[in-house]
Please model this.
Amino acid sequence: MYDFWSGLLLGDGSYQGNPFQKHKWLAIDSAHFTRWLSLFKATVEECYEGDKADEAMARASTIADVFQNKMGLKKP
Ligand code: HEM
Model:
């Protein structure tokens, strides 16, 4: 998880995995993604501020959309 976010935000290329593969079998729907995003954003805002914090929240939202699209889930 550390590697994933540092790779995305700092471009250090440390993450070599495929996150979607880890999620595609989970029994989750769009409500879970909405809740996940809400908790993620609250945590980022509590701990960080600035451009990288904003970028983390924006990227999380985009990736959550991509996951949902690939899983055939309808966005709320
Ligand atoms: C309802 C939403 C989500 C649930 C329930 C969920 C659940 C999980 C679970 C259970 C794992 C562990 C999988 C394993 O090791 O077998 C995992 C890993 C991970 N998740 Fe999520 N996740 C959610 C959303 C997201 C989103 C939106 C992102 C990206 C912005 C994300 C990024 C990751 C990453 C980077 C890993 C580690 C992947 C790896 O080990 O290579 N997750 N998640």
